[in-house]
Specification:
With 326 residues, the chain is of the alpha/beta class. The chain has eleven helices and ten strands. Strands 1, 2, 3, 4, 5, 6, 7, 8, 9 and 10 form a ten-stranded mixed beta sheet that branches.
Length: 326
């Protein structure tokens, strides 16, 4: 028995040392794992969340902060995940964030007051993609057509309904209104099951680029007096252009509208977590901009443009320190 004890002691010491080495400079108890609900893997949200995760690991490893990107539904679903406490951060559209915070009827059962703003990121263009043989030249031409309006719970679906409304239409005026993911919508356009589809995504989204390579498509102009009506009723929208040459067969600039993508956090997330992650992201924008071409114009100075809801205390502290928030 005595011999066995003498053998066990050094083994225990080795195991403790190995555990300490594996844990590293930050005590395991002090590690903080936070999640970002990041939308579909085919859009720009997931690369954004992935870039934030890598930047946090690079700059905040010694603080014990680890960020994980998680695929999710879309903007409405992400707001609800915050409300349920099932995620720490979420990327979503600014219009949907406002609807969630204020409890827009028909979308949210009650206001999600623990949804707070962190930063606005980049414009998301509403891109109406139509098969060229469908002869769709404006949203008004969608009447009697087969159209994907975006998945249930998505910002895309809300944008589609609002744009149709500006042209005096509803989903009931369509021959068929499909609620599909972005990748499903693309597949349906390619095989002729759809005439057109709405995508609220960054310009240059792979799902649209791939579709244009397979089948002749047009980016349908969203412009004219009806856009002024749209913006008057829904001031989250801004007039934008889809630059020519981005998608095959679409060589000219096409007018459209956009909303803003933004980062939000749940209200009870620690202030220093939000503050440190925001600081890390803005200190390493080069890394962020490598993740997607749409991120090239993100800056700290524009981080509150279009912010529709109150700021998280961690974000408020950061932007005040940098002089962006007076």
């Amino acid at each position: 028995m005595i011999k066995q004890k003498k053998i066990l002691i050094p083994i225990v010491v080795v195991l403790v040392a190995a555990f300490a080495f594996a844990v590293g400079p930050v005590d395991a108890a002090k590690r903080r794992y936070v999640s970002i609900a990041a939308g579909w893997v085919t859009g720009a949200y997931f690369p954004m969340a992935g870039a934030i995760s890598r930047i946090a690991w690079k700059h905040l490893k010694d603080d014990g902060i680890k960020v994980t990107a998680e695929s999710s539904g879309a903007s409405v679903a992400n707001a609800k995940l915050i409300g349920q406490g099932d995620t720490d951060f979420a990327i979503l559209q600014n219009d949907i964030a406002s609807y969630a915070y204020n409890g827009k009827k028909g979308m949210f059962d009650e206001p999600i007051k623990n949804l707070l703003g962190v930063a606005t990121l980049f414009p998301e263009h509403c891109q109406l993609v139509a098969r060229r043989d469908s002869n769709i030249n404006s949203p008004g031409d969608l009447k009697g057509k087969k159209v994907a309006i975006g998945p249930v719970g998505s910002g895309t679906a809300e944008n589609a309904k609002q744009i149709l409304e500006a042209w005096g239409l509803t989903v009931d005026d369509l021959e068929k209104a499909e609620q599909l993911t972005a990748s499903q919508s693309a597949d349906y356009i390619k095989d002729g099951r759809l005439d057109a589809a709405f995508f609220t995504v960054a310009v240059g989204a792979a799902v649209i680029m791939d579709t244009a390579l397979i089948v002749d498509t047009n980016i349908v102009p969203i412009t004219g007096d009806n856009v002024d009506k749209l913006i008057q009723k829904y001031p989250f929208y801004a007039k934008q252009m889809v630059p020519g040459g981005i998608y095959k067969g679409n060589d000219k600039d096409v007018p459209t509208v956009s909303v803003m993508a933004m980062l939000a956090a749940r209200a009870d997330l620690e202030e220093d977590i939000v503050y440190k992650i925001l600081g890390a992201v803005y200190s390493d924008l080069d890394q962020l901009k490598k993740a997607h071409d749409k991120f090239k114009d993100i800056s700290m100075e524009t981080g509150l443009v279009g912010m529709p809801i109150p700021l998280h205390p961690g974000a408020e502290k950061y932007f005040k320190e940098k002089g962006v928030l007076k």
